[in-house]
Write a structure and sequence with these properties.
Helix content of chain A: 55-70%
Number of helices of chain A: 8
Largest sheet of chain A: none
Structural class of chain A: mainly alpha
Number of strands of chain A: 0
Order of helices and strands of chain A: HHHHHHHH
Distance between the termini of chain A: 86 Å
Oligomer: homodimer
Shape of chain A: elongated
Largest interface: A-B, 58 and 58 residues
Chain lengths: 206, 206
DNA sequence: ACCTGAACACCGTTCAAGT
DNA sequence: ACCTGAACACCGTTCAAGT
């Protein structure tokens, strides 16, 4: 009969709210999409008042900033191309890993590269995580080119490679390109890479 | 003294509201960004009640759908690479035109490729305009490859080229890559294209 | 046919107050 | 220190009503 008795959402406060909010947000993100993820809904899901989140995150932007940072960390982890025989293989494998990550976490990927952070303002954590992911890419490209990571050629080539892969992932995720029904990520990435090669074989001839 | 006298917003109704709303929306889009463009604000700007728009567009999605379609039409128009000496030049010029369009209309570009239309649902007009823009790209690639537009090789190559250019534009627009201060669109596109070439010169050696 | 105002169900965010 | 409820300024959208 005491006031302690749980009332279906387990009373007053929960303990470590911050990570719980993050987890709930991550889960809801893939359900409702990056633009429609609301603080109020996330709070309610955790079983806490709508304003409780503001004691752990400055605002919505900071919450989704953490989400995006998490995404970049996971992406950076999956990039390393374990056992690749040669440069071509390493590049292809990185491209494939990148593409598969985006396909597996479409809403998170949209958030990571979406307009929410297009203005300069974004959490430091996010900026760091993003740079680290790009570093991973540069490392791979440096190996392929057999140059030092800091060389400007490496930077340019990494940037170009990132553009290509990001573009492919982005177009598929936003359903601008319809991903062919009967195919695997691997086959699709390979086939499109063939297309790119063909475009440049012509260029070399001129 | 009649009721006809204009009251600063010119009385009851305006005439051709639909295009006026579109125009106002287009203008506000670049100011507030794709996610924050609101029907209410657009309506107020035109000087009309918040609900008036619903007599001309089914909902917000349809309004911004028209906006995006307009974007694809303009993009398709700017792609044709008038006088290009050879294939490489044509490709580069298309890439540059595409990139410049995105840089000149960042919010519109974000809208065109943003999550708003990632679910299957989008206006027919938008779908058509998008396909037409892609057709333009295929035509250019077909010329470069000296093949028929309908060939699957052309489709794949166009898709790859689109991915690359879209990726580059998208990363710059979302400020993932910081566009170098002292540079022009032309120099930036050329430099990055060099990077891509370098990446593939290695591949050819394997 | 075209537009308005009130209303509903949502948002993000602030602030005084409670434990 | 951590959480809540009421409140404010916004949304999209519906609906009955006005011209």
């Amino acid at each position: 009969m005491t006031k302690h008795s749980p009332r279906s959402r387990d009373a007053y406060h929960v303990g470590n709210l911050a990570p719980q909010l993050l987890k709930a947000a991550r889960h809801m993100l893939e359900q409702v999409g990056p633009t429609k993820l609301s603080l109020r809904a996330v709070s309610e899901r955790v079983g806490v008042s709508a304003t409780a989140a503001y004691h752990h995150y400055a605002n919505r932007a900071e919450l989704i900033g953490h989400l995006a940072a998490q995404g970049f960390r996971e992406l950076a982890q999956e990039l390393p191309t374990h056992g690749s025989e040669n440069g071509l293989q390493a590049l292809r494998n990185a491209c494939l890993a990148y593409f598969s990550f985006a396909r597996a976490n479409p809403a998170l990927y949209q958030l990571m590269f979406g307009p929410e952070f297009a203005d300069g303002q974004m959490p430091l954590e996010l900026h760091g995580a993003r740079d680290q992911a790009f570093s991973e890419l540069r490392r791979i490209v440096a190996e392929v080119l057999e140059l030092d990571m800091e060389q400007p050629e490496v930077r340019r080539a990494a940037l170009a490679g990132w553009s290509y892969t990001h573009g492919l992932a982005s177009l598929v995720i936003h359903r601008v390109l319809i991903f062919p029904a009967g195919t695997t990520d691997q086959r699709f990435v390979d086939s499109t890479l063939q297309g790119l090669l063909q475009l440049f074989q012509v260029e070399k001839g001129t």
